[in-house]
């Protein structure tokens, strides 16, 4: 029945129920005829749809272990295989089930004990993949094998047959040949992982890459392996934080912008059709540096749960480091996807690591992050969470659901919906899911009667004991059946109920909840149990502890490490671990460490456990590596001598011995292994007796230490027991290497057990790269060596080498021994060399240190790589990781090569060769240390001071505070007194001795004797003969001068000066005078009275010689000037003052005539002018020519005469050039600070002048700051690098030769750019 009302689509079930209870009388049933073909088609569709639904249900049951358990089921069953005898075979299977089933293997229904027969069976179970490996298959391994999987739901089994065939193959059997070549040439091999990544360390914000090389054979492009990466057994998927790459050979995992969430155990798993291979290593992520000291580090692992239309629960994990104080709480931020605006969700810090966020907008997606806070401040934000959408869970499930089968029809109805306008019913199952002191979370189920329109919820609360219900969210009804209530009074009890509402109205309230007390329901975890630390490797320790007994919702444990006695704790892991055993990596070898553990859950941290006992970080003891290179050293009719190479790794303990096994080989078929010796063999060779002649034997060797037996070495080749009749010697044995460095190593060996027909006369050593073919062997030594060791040099760093030794005798060179190696040419970290030391007592010793000492490790010293037999020459002292070999009496007998190795380590060794040059140097150095000499920076010198005082001084270069000085004169010790004053300034090292006056008895030798511990020093000064007399006379003169200067005295004695006006000034300068000091002038011993007018005008005639002097006198003393004679007369007016005296003579005076002379012209008198000037200064007559020209060249003469006699001096300026600066320099230079200044001046002069640069009248020297150059005799330059304000000043370029001196001044001004800008701003 059709109408024009709105047509709606409904489910089939609803329509059927409506029609069943319909009371309408006009209901009609429509019958449609269908063909047979159509019916068959619909039936097939229904069957297909039912099958798909059943498969989906079964798949969901298996993938959801929390819903239903299901029995074990073999997803991949083991397959039967056929193998050749002596080969290995592996059976694989994959099992699913819940609970996780346990798999056991059976052989012909008999359980296989893999632990009891580890050399035969290996059973592995990883990631629901199970395997059984059968090693060295023989005929008895042909059987039916069964894999049984068992859990609580039942048991399931799968069978596979293994057939072992003999190695004999008929040449016409093509199928057998194919299987033979497939097995022998490894046509199908499980993957092999090489170049494995190890334990890695990174910091937050960095990028880290992990990679391995994978060998897959055959490499078929069509069948590429599955390369899977796991973190903590959780499969990783590519994201913005994780990138994966597979190149066909190398698997790479790149962690972009590391965070603490990335810490964990990483596993690479490679799956192929022939098997799988895995490799795991731990990655540690350290916290980034905090911006402020004391703040906590960022939280981690932020996740979103229980998302609804307007509500989501955010959880996180607390950080390992709380900072300088405990964490007070956390702030949660949200950001809408597509924006960068972060909004804080809570105003008050929450203490729980869980918080319900409300007020989300339906249909939008959000990111969340968390910040921790303590008293010092806030941490950095955590890594953002994955985006979460605020939608109804049913809508999210519908969006995630797979497409269903296509609907083949549609039912339509046109009547009015009877549910429109229905008030919703009561919600059900209301409960308090979370209750803390900060919030309470309610959850409920929607009502059954709610209509087809959306409903919302009102939440009401009531304090227990009252009947008053208060609506919590009146203004904003909740759209989700979850609600978080905040701001509840801590300690009060509340009941809650919920009402539903829609457009029709508000429904009845739900049943109230039981009373809920506001407070933390989740308690802090209890303290973890005792902590036990055990050694693991050289940089790691295994830490185990007891689990917290009282803990709910455990997040994990944090482990902290500290050096014993330091009380400083550092986290070992930044991501909590749930197990009770953890390997702490990245420790320092040799330190004693203690450990403690604390548990953490959503409520917070537990108390830290008690610290463990201190453990030394060293490699633990393990079983040794297997020996290698089992070869035949000698054979006879009933015995054979075997040799082998010691294990490359001893496992951290001494090798206590070796055990040998043997088996017979007949026609290529080997028998079972049998023990050859019951007592351990201490050497690397063994004589096997009671063997049968002409039979073939194979041998294998195992090494033993205190940890146990190693795995067996690779079997030797079949060896025939018969007499050796060759004439050449057998192979050397016992090959091992010491002192492996990046460019050299030392190879050692032992004498062959079989010498041939004559004694061994020498050895040859061959070497080749490990990857090279057998034709690439090269000889190391051209001539044979009789020693049992050889240093091999010229190696390439990082390259692997193999070595072998051949012995020779008179008959020839024997066969080479089994190669040793591969050995990588590299210098291991922490490798030290032997250091030769001479201590303060002159004792010569050799010192070797090892930083990787293990329990039981010992230093073994040898000379020329042989055990020390004469211990009287060397005294060995060992303490900790340091060994010292002391020479008792070093001499030529001790020349040779000394080596030291450390047992129970990976080859730590070194050597030192003592040569004749080293012997002489060490003996000289020992003598210096036994009898040390104090060095002097300055030897003893003498200095004459004021008052005639004599100072003897010297300066010591190196001394201690205990240095003492002895003062000696003529072998007699002198002390402090009236005559001698001594002083030793230990801050500068200057030694001084003063004498007020030198007397005749002071002639001799003065000495300073120094004693500083056992070091001595001596410095002397000899004062005798003329040197002493001159010094004594000078001392007496200085003392007399000092006495004279105590009273009135002459500072400058009487002198004269002739002026340009031809006046003669007699003058002197006096000092230390008083008003009562008498100053008297004399001429020819006649006093000149200042008041005598006649005496003021004294006429000096040509025949008279005037002698003038001045005398000073007062109660302190007296002094007189030197006499001065005047040759001509005149009127002499006398004037005096308190500080200077001057006599000015007028009238006739000394005449000075200056005239130029040349061969071509007669003498001409030079007249005084502005350009040409002459005069007298003191006792000097001078002539000055300003700006000379070519016309001024010639001969100049000076005539001095008194009317009777005269003196003439001639000076030639013909063809000569004085030094001068001809240009190139500015007057003022202004330059910005930090720039470099370069100036060049042009100079001239013949001969070439001497050039110097002056700054503030002080000469400059060339250094790093000033660069001074003078090139080609013409160009003088100065360069000032990076000028500063200190370089401002007055400079000058000064040139000088024998004809004159000239200076060109200029000024340098350095300014700041900022100062110029300020000046410019002020002007504006």
Automatic annotation (TrEMBL):
GO terms for cellular component: cytoplasm; myosin filament. InterPro entries: FN3_dom, FN3_sf, Ig-like_dom, Ig-like_dom_sf, Ig-like_fold, Ig_I-set, Ig_sub, Ig_sub2. Residues 507-529 are annotated as: Disordered. GO terms for molecular function: structural molecule activity. It is found in: Cytoplasm. Residues 71-163, 191-284, 822-915, 1048-1123, 1231-1309 form the Ig-like domain. Residues 298-394, 426-520, 527-619, 626-724, 731-830 form the Fibronectin type-III domain. This is Myomesin 1a (skelemin).
